[in-house]
């Protein structure tokens, strides 16, 4: 995804890759299989981690990276295949045993105890003791402070963990890993929500750990980061092991090809449409501490992309526009009509639809059936007097299932049995059934397969062709560049750049997202 | 990996120091909230006592104050056990019934065996409570069923069992050994025995929750159950133990109840669970788990007990007591919630500002 | 997932089978007395308040909330009837006022839950004490019993030409209303969506807060209605009327197959659960079992009705740490309510 220019902007040049990998890997997986019900999450995956290397784990969303990490963490047990630690086969009974074997995992959103102090978070379950098996609070505090000294950061061991930034939470997790002399450190997209300075600090820590002989498994979508930090990589696609080897001499494009198994041009580009009137108009929208002074217009037939790093406030703007969160200041207008703030009902009545970022938690009621989900936003239209005619509900779901080429067994099946792509189609059906004027889509193709991805792109393009105003949030630059008529870039809660289709390049968007490009390009 | 150090540079200082400064501010905020709670209870206690004393100065006589502590001690005892359960994001509604069952069975055993020494008899009460608590804990931990429903069920099961075994009989003071009754009414250094026992249990509970690994793990479980699993904490076992301890403490409370009142029938302790939960919540133990102290819970019990006594002194009909208990519980959770919302809003506002300071 | 739907179907089938079994065993053991018109009349009366309150509570639990204050609202309503009657009010005025007060009690619960975001468990434990306490304040420990026979007869005589008690007639009518509300209206769809995933419901434009508020108000009003039934049935208004009834109501709803975690359940199942509970109680009464044993049995039924699905969930899944992994997924992805997170079972990642 990233170009060399982006890499230079984010971090220092990488260490040269080290070869000569003698000896036994500290952790190895050989031909590991793991299924959940009918879904085969891992199909014969192998991975070797050697002391003193930073190893990248690459793959698209849904490729099986999370399952692999949780297998290493002792959360999942492989159905078959070998799990070796120091060359000896092991069968971990749980996370505690993985920890005792020296494996530490830092999840994307760190798992801390908000009410407890940082020192307690670092030493939970392993607090230093004094006489009478009582916890030695002073020693715990001192050792935590010493760990932070080693990491070169200053955090107060006594403050509660709640309210820490994600970056600081990660440091607490790293301190935890150091506290039990972890030899293997697994980091799941640690940089997704970090600022540049925070990324640099993290990389410094990771490199130091590597020099101390630790093995680090680094999961990231930012290939420039991967190339600068990691020596070797393992690539997964659809749960299968695709490639493993030295990263030296590889470019981001090579890696993308390995990950997706196709050329980038397979993405569906948007057709040109002459934009009509302004349909969605956001004026100086502010939610304190989240985003400030955001103004934007989306015209009929236009796809406007909202780009930026995770945590820049893009999704939060979308939530406020749709009325999920109440903004502190500013206005939202749809077709010349001002929306009541904080009311999804008002937004929907004005013709706004919203495909949220988190499909499983926000987009769908996973336990409910396909038809119930598809009809959930259209309840008032399925019968008189607030009643729901079952036949009308079924017909709505049936119609859209056909139109969107949904793959399903029965409409009464829980939506949770569908694949990610088909689930996303149900979310889209839910909103398209209302014939929206404005459609906000937040990461519309996250975690769905390549074929469905192209279908979603084609659909969005068609909708724009029919005069729908589309506001699209996406972290995938190719998607942004391929689909958008205009690209708005957010950085740290502010709109920092507006680029039209001709101006928008990966480099410019990435620079703006990093806060290095002025407004207007 | 010992001896790891990371060179510091300018960038690191900017990234590292600010969180520390903000951290201090956040900690002060949280500290203040914690202190406000305990201070608030104390102020409320003083106000209630003062108002009552104005109406009737005898209310602050040593004897009256002793009675105040004595009346609150059973609830305070139960509140200790309940705190252990509530910090794990559970609740034990069966404590009143466990107390009743333990009180009646212990009293009956004493009445049937006049020669029974004191200690084994009291221990029997503890064991009965422990068994009841273990049953609760087993169903909650192994069945992964909400504790509310489980203990609501066992509230009635234990009480029904109590009534079935009692068959309308009651044990009177005349049937109980004198040593037992003097334990219930006696004093040591001017302090009622029951109050001393309660203080010991409070101290033990406070020490356990503050200074022992498994005690801290109870907070971790209530604070973030998923993270607790990932941290390797045996969540099921800890929750089981919390319920078992709550049961055992309720059993002890039952035995002491018998010693104090002398007359025990199957209805002993009916409805106490409401007062206990109220005391715990008023005392600052957060109903959604993860924070709160035994001392706060005990103070909450003292406040509720004092209010009850004041109603008597101020000649307000006792009928008001239950309504006031309920209103206080609602007020406590409402205030907690409002404070938490304020705190969250403050943190939200400060976090982005801090991030901007750090960024490029 | 599909087998979970089948499990729910099985649950309701099992209820009906159990009900038939109880009826057969009952009539054999009692030489046919159990199924006699007279006994069925008493069975119906005995279960009337539980059955009435179970209807709105089904919706509350389906929306992943709980209301433990129902029995106290019943008591408050009974106490108010006694107090206002003693004060000389006509019953035609008292009854609507009492139902309104019940609705107001429900509104208090609902507002605390929706406006402040407090857990309904804590709120309704508090209001359980508050409402019962207010009942005591209103009426003390006295009883009012001098109600006109024209009202009390509704609690003692059957509907002419049948063995149907009037309260059961009321229940039948309300059951149809609530069944339509839950299963064939947009409100019912919203209730299930809120119960299964509140956040997704909100993101689909469901007015979550209003839905919950309406549910609590309905529950309060019906609980007050049950208080009226109780008062006239026993011809006695007392502040402690119906103490502990919340247990039986929650037991009936859960026995009826409504998931304590919300999102699943049917009104038909709850009606079957109520009938089963009533039949068991009736049989025990015919067997001259004491009310204490009844309490034990009700408590055990409650435990069984939450334990059986829990065991089913365990068996239904592989005994594997994978569940744990999915739980972690859920909490990381979403801010799912704590009590759902503990046992929720979303699909594979």
UniProtKB/TrEMBL annotation, chain A:
Q: Which one of the record's GO molecular function terms can you name?
A: ATP hydrolysis activity
Question: What ranges does the record give for the region Disordered, renumbered to this chain?
Answer: 1-23
The record's Gene3D superfamilies line, in alphabetical order, gives: P-loop containing nucleotide triphosphate hydrolases
Keyword DNA-binding assigned to the entry: answer is no
Keyword set, alphabetical order:
ATP-binding, Cell membrane, Membrane, Nucleotide-binding, Repeat, Sugar transport, Translocase, Transport
Q: What is the lineage of its organism?
A: Bacteria, Bacillati, Actinomycetota, Actinomycetes, Pseudonocardiales
Name of the featured protein: Rhamnose transport system ATP-binding protein
Q: Give the signal sequence positions.
A: none
Q: Where is the ABC transporter domain?
A: 27-263, 273-517
Q: How does it sit in the membrane?
A: Peripheral membrane protein
For this UniProt entry, what's an example GO CC term? plasma membrane
UniProtKB/TrEMBL annotation, chain B:
Q: What exactly does this protein do?
A: Part of the ABC transporter complex LsrABCD involved in autoinducer 2 (AI-2) import. Probably responsible for the translocation of the substrate across the membrane.
Which ranges form a coiled coil?
none
Compartment list = Cell membrane
| Cellular component, GO annotation | plasma membrane
Complex formation? The complex is composed of two ATP-binding proteins (LsrA), two transmembrane proteins (LsrC and LsrD) and a solute-binding protein (LsrB).
Q: Which domain of life is it from?
A: Bacteria
Membrane topology reported for the UniProt record: Multi-pass membrane protein
The entry's keywords: Cell inner membrane, Cell membrane, Membrane, Transmembrane, Transmembrane helix, Transport
Keyword set includes Protein biosynthesis: no
Transmembrane segment boundaries: 39-61, 68-87, 118-142, 188-209, 239-260, 266-287, 294-317, 323-345
What is the official name of this protein in its record?
A: Autoinducer 2 import system permease protein LsrC
Q: What's a Gene Ontology MF term here?
A: transmembrane transporter activity
Pfam families to which the protein is assigned, alphabetical:
BPD_transp_2
Q: Which organism is it from?
A: Goodfellowiella coeruleoviolacea
Automatic annotation (TrEMBL), chain C:
Q: Give the CC-aspect GO terms.
A: plasma membrane
| Keyword Transport in annotation | yes
What keywords is this UniProt entry annotated with? Cell inner membrane, Cell membrane, Membrane, Transmembrane, Transmembrane helix, Transport
* Any one GO molecular function term: transmembrane transporter activity
Chief location category: membrane
Q: Where in the cell is it found?
A: Cell membrane
Give the membrane topology, semicolon-separated if more than one. Multi-pass membrane protein
Name by which UniProt lists this protein? Autoinducer 2 import system permease protein LsrD
Look up and give the organism this protein is from.
Goodfellowiella coeruleoviolacea
